Amino acid sequence: MATTDNEVKELIKREYEHGFVTEIESETFEPGLNEDVIARLSAIKKEPEWMLEWRLKAYRRWLEMDEPDWAHVGYPKVDYNSISYYSAPKRKEDMPQSLDEVDPELLKTYEKLGIPLHEREKLAGVAVDAVFDSVSVATTFKEPLAKAGVIFCSISEAVHDYPELVKKYLGTVVPQGDNFFAALNSAVFSDGTFVYIPKGVRCPMELSTYFRINAANTGQFERTLIIAEEGSYVSYLEGCTAPMRDENQLHAAVVELVALDDAQIKYSTVQNWYPGDEEGKGGIYNFVTKRGACIGKNSKISWTQVETGSAVTWKYPSCVLRGDNSVGEFYSVALTHNFQQADTGTKMIHLGKNTTSTIISKGISAGKSSNAYRGLVKFGPGAEGARNFTQCDSLLIGDRCGAHTFPYIESKNKSAIVEHEATTSKVSDEQMFLCRQRGIDPEQAVSMIVNGFCKEVFKELPMEFAVEAGKLLEVSLEGSVG
Amino acid sequence: MKSAPMLSSAFLHPAGQSLPQPLLALRKDRASALVDMPLPTRKTENWKYSSKYLKLADDMAISLPADGTVGSSLAVPGYKVVFLNGVMIPEASEYPDLDGILIQSFSDLDDEQGQALAEQLGRTLNHDQAQFARLNGARFEDGLLVRLKPGAVLDQPLFVIHETTADASGSAYPRILVEAGANSQMTLVEEYISQGESAAFTNTVTEFTLAEGANITNIRLNMEGENVQHIGATGVVQQRSSRFESHCVGFGGPLRRHDLQVRLEGEGAECKLNGVVVTQGKQHYDNHTCIEHIAAHCNSEETYRNIAADQSHAVFNGRIHIHQDAQQSNANMNNKNLLLSNGAEIDTKPELEIYADDVKCAHGATIGQLDETSLFYLVSRGIDRRQANVLLTMAFINELMQQIPVEAVRETAQTRLNEFFEQTFQEA
Amino acid sequence: MLSIKNLHASVEDKEILKGINLEIKPGEVHAIMGPNGSGKSTLSQVLAGNEAFEVTSGEVTLNGENLLDQETEERARNGVFLAFQYPVEIPGVSNLQFLRTAVNAMRKHKGEEDMNAAEFMKLAKEVSKQVDLDPAFLKRGVNEGFSGGEKKRNEIMQALLLQPKLAILDETDSGLDIDALKVVSDGVNALRSEDRAILMVTHYQRLLNHIVPDYVHVLAGGRIIKSGGRELALELEEKGYGWLGIKDEASN
Questions:
Q1: What is the complex's ipTM, to 2 decimals?
Q2: Chain A: closest CA distance from residue C180 (Å)
Q3: Looking at the keywords, is Zinc present (chain C) (predicted)?
Q4: Nearest-angstrom CA–CA distance, A218 and A31
């Protein structure tokens, strides 16, 4: 049996594919954070006064807050003054007017990432907003989207062009002082995506953003705001990669979703930030606050995530189910390997009547990693007839890793029903033997068994992403068999 | 940052000095470690849901006197030891002098025995999780030592009645240590009761060490009065192939807290933990359990049920921790909760922390109300609604009640449950 | 085709097989009978290469090639098929995906092109009918929630798909009712061919009424203590294992 384990170990090694650095001229701030830096940032972006005030207010809140230490992760303290808070590809003019004006090096980068940025690559029907380091570089498909009335642009543009919408919703789902990282993001967010789906509109294509951290010693603080008006629908995908660097890099994003009556938002993430090397050196600190508010009745927000990257992950995509009959969903696969640490899960806050939520979480730990599910299911006194079903399963590959489950379940309404189940198991020797007896490679066998374990989550992903996710898992598992 | 409230220094001064010298020294030593002990707040993870119920006024620091009259005259089907406010009352106790079995109060020990005991006390517990066991260590006035020699079998259950007399405000610090030799066997029943209407505080510690093959059953029945706050901790350490079975039945109060920590240190050790909690009015009850699988091939099975009525609040936090070398562990935890009223609250947190890969672990938790379909079915058969409610509520915990191996305890608990049903389900 | 010489094997330092000798020629069907604990299942697991068992000495060759040197999957690709006594569940992995992966692994080994999904689906449906399994089973997880009989039929279906040189059937009859036994036996009989050897391991002889073996061997205490033709099985059935001086715990 020991041999099988060894073979499994052999299988989990493969190098990080997206670890290239792009040689482009960029304009980067000196490391350090103070009110002047924020003012400079705001000035570069030609922001209105109210935006700067908003940032400064958040910054002052942040100064009074402590970095959270309750998660099941350990990492050396981040020196927030050694990070640069702005890095942008240098441009001769202001913003590129079309793709032709974008730095060819940059376009090559996206080609390497397999992003269909060019028009001719649009077959997938994906409109891409690509955020490179701190700024949004190019947004495709603006026209067909505009025809449908959909606004899909960088948050910086939105601040200029749609200030009323931004003012109305920014910080309403994740308040500035919500937590340490959200406060920091609110002060220094450099760019991000803004989506507005008008009343009754079904967004004609899937929207997508690719994030990439390129420059060294920079933090990435993007901010995403998606508003789905009454009866509208949007499916949004995000993908993330970063180059291989020995230093840890910080990523502290905030995502806010707002769904009004009968609106639906489907938010999918494939996160593959650089996880660090085999010795645990380098990698991204991924401290992200994602939250959706189902304000309207019959609204629905689904989070689907496949997380294989980052050195340390601290992330709990949540739903506040305020509207009666609103629905929250969380489907997650989190894979950790080598020295990766993840503390991730979700919060489902049931406030309205007959609200329902489903949580399916699949954690896979390999190597010396630590993988924790942390979730909150809460029924307020008004959550008459509310329901939750939670299933969290952990799969262990190797005997040096950890798999943990920390669910918090709170109910103040007697008619609300919650069911929670969790299991922990390993890829069994018997399963491996069966596969190999049928002639299947051990590597392929592990990947097949792990994919089977994650099936319930993968089927929630849009088709192209599901394929990518399966492959990503295979790559991430290499050399883990053990 | 606002500074956290501290335990009042009034709590650091025990009254009785009748213990052997080494235990007095131990107590003093423990008290010095308690200076500046922060009281739990909402931010203290293991007191998150319960800190608001904890109200330790200075007048509660006074040790309740041990010279009152014993209120309970329970006839028990077994041996009996009675403690009044944490001090043993020999006249009210009836236990045999059996070969191989020592049953003795701490204050009857000589200095040498006291020294040996001082080295054992508190070793089964993780005090960072059960913070108030430290306070007991600094305040106990007496205690019960049960020592079973290898192979000794106690033929009848030993009932330990802990009575708190709250005629005036004050506190009591009962303590028990059971050392079970190889292949020994006994059933220990702890009953916590009270008389008097003043605000009182009971702070208990019960410890069990099980040598190879020992087999211990522990029943804990908490039925103290409406004004008694109770914080208890039970620590269990098990060696190879030993078996520990626990049945905790608790009725709510202004603050009720029980920490149950089991360490499976020897291969093949097994534990089974059952618990039933019932709260009503504005009562509270919080069970925290932690099972640590340290050795390989151990099994644990945990089943807890909470019922909360009116504006009451029940909390369950179960933790299974599988250490790296604990391969081939089997651990199951199941927690079901019944919320009988919209004013009531139930919080549950079933946790798994796993560092070994060849394990089978599962937990399940549910919160819900009585099933409307079942209710309708019963009513449609002519059973009145109130009775149907009682039947279904009882059914929710019946399986666990029936597993309690001492009939007298089942009856006592049932009588109290009937009162609960009476008060909770009104005639239509 | 299969040649076993003085095979010794142990599990957790306990010797189970204590010198097995066996020769099987193409086209032959051999039955190994024996009481529980005699080492029957160990023999099938060792031949298939389960690493839980350690071969301490002896030699096994398949068509002249040393089998013991090969990894489990190499043996499979070289034509060794084991129908498991207790088929394993793999949740979430569909039978179809599993089988196609296996078939394509074999094809790749033989230097053939992968079979595409449509082609494979057609083939799988045909074979599933042969063992009376509803093709809907193909879409379910491998053995997930299958009844005992369904699992066994699934095993035989895999043998029909993979077309092995040597099929080892480990207690394939256990847990089957008489109808299922018939279906499974028909499947096995369909496997019989000139260039294929079949090794059946069984406790009872009732399977042998449906699949008539060429040779019967009695395994006890880790050794083959008696070999003979079909009639040996009948004699065993009549007289019990006690006849050969073997204790059989299961039949008590």
A1: 0.88
A2: 23
A3: no
A4: 8
